[in-house]
Amino acid sequence: MNPIVHRTLVVQLRADGTGRCPVLAHLSYDAGDPFAVTAVFTLDGRVLARWRLDREMLNDGLREPVGVGDVRLRPVRQGRWREVRMDFLGDPLPGGTRHHAVVFAWAPALAAFLSDTYMVVAPGREEVQVDDVLAEILATG
Known about the structure:
This protein is α+β, with helices and mostly antiparallel strands.
């Protein structure tokens, strides 16, 4: 049985053309998939989006801008207030643009969640059972 870490945070969502709106971010870490964090964003019990994020990228995003693809993170400071800005780029829209949502998470809460995951699997100690992954891929292909 793999240990699981779960934390629910109140974050601020800003979608295309809107102001900030509070939503819940349910963060989960499963030692069986040691490089990933699953983030499920909900509002009034409805799932708005589900993303699998790289745990190391989340940690790096607390200190510096990271990401060049569909997910980009960077620290934001306003006085003593520290946040992590998460830009999520989605499906293409007519006209060549893409859906774009921005989530602002309180940096100390995100850091505390990551700290809990490091107690389960320390950075650099992640292991993937390659034989199991290959068997799963071949069984579903």
